Protein 1
Amino acid sequence: MTEKKKMTQQLGVRIPDSLEPVYANLIKISHADDEVTLTFLHKIPETNLAQGRAIVTITPQHAKRLLRALSTNLKRYEATYGEIKLPEDGSGREEKSNVEVA
């Protein structure tokens, strides 16, 4: 089977009833030679506190695929809804990035 054919196969996904969505407005990214760890946090507004919501560890290859998938999906989003403006790019009030690289 070709690589392209493998990628187009459907994947059955089971999500347990007990799995609840979480909200995160800050992500800490760290890495080792064989893994990338994303720590999803909820920074409490007007405080210096953040609460951990989820920790996801993936391989560097999966991280690169995630980067590619996010880029593709954000381009589609902007094509539909318009450009996403970031305050740190001078498009509004100045604000610290919500992604921290460790």
Protein 2
Amino acid sequence: MTKKHKKIIWTIAGIVLAALALFLAAGLYFFNVAEVPGKKTFVSNGTVRLKKSTPLYAEKKWYRDVKKQHWTMMSANNKYRLAAYYLPAKKSKKTVIILHGFMSNKENMGAYAQLFHSLGYNVLLPDAEAHGQSQGKYVGYGWLEKTDVCKWSQQVIKQTGQRSEIAIMGVSMGGATTMMTSGLKLPKQVKCFIEDCGYTNAKNEIEHEAQALYGMPAFPRFPLVEVLSLVSRVKAGYFLGDASSLKQLHKNKKPMLFIHGSKDKFVPTEMVYKNYRASSGPKQLLVVKGATHAESIEHNHRLYKKTVAKFLRKYLK
């Protein structure tokens, strides 16, 4: 091999190594954006301030002011202490567990809590790992959180007895967590699910956000998302494709109500149709005309309440 050939080989190798280093650095950067808790520019962070102009102000104010029980438990992996609010209803053994979205917390779920409590249900509102008052290191996009939700349902049964009836409900990442939880072996007391604007899987959602939020074309979106997924596996313990609502829904045999806004651009509306088709149990679909992401309850509160009330009456006796 001539010196010229060797120089060409070393030059190519250097370019390849530099490209790999660049993609790894970018993968680490986007891992911090996507999975490490902290301030995010593309979503509301922490507790949203309540003002009189806030949609459903009365419902959210009720939730802010109502007396709450503070519950805690260790996460399913026994690494973190998790926090929740519990709002008991009078002499009820029926409970709705409400799951919040990405970088949100239980404080922002007031409209949902008021709705279900007004219908006569106990309400449990956990903070997911690494959110709100709960300890944690990374965001699990529903995959890490699903086993915690199962454990929260067991806590509800301890509180309300073996004759408990439980529905699990979530919004956005909480909706995806609900769907992923549905594929687990759950206590028989868990009767049904309501998911609102959850994604098909974390990988699809992050690919969509890379395009929608950053204007990233097909390249370098591939292979960057693949590198991010690998970083996620090393640091957080799961590939992005593992966090799949679709795969878990195939295992689900229990009733589920799917809700989505017709103008959702953050989690595209088309995802709800894929999720709906994937579920193996009894199912119902509500697409709220004109609603954007996670705003169906505000956009048409009357329809939202009527639909979920009828669904719950059917499956929580």
Protein 3
Amino acid sequence: MQLTPEELISEFHDAVMELYFARKRIARLEAENAELKARLEAAETKSGTDPAA
């Protein structure tokens, strides 16, 4: 299947937009992960459990 130049541009634009939103989601998930790790470490420290064990 061959695409016209307009179709190629449209496909490229769609891919760029998907990448943009995927990167935003990754950033949100990384922030959430860091927060959860900090909460877990705080809870383990408070309970006297060694988080490295």
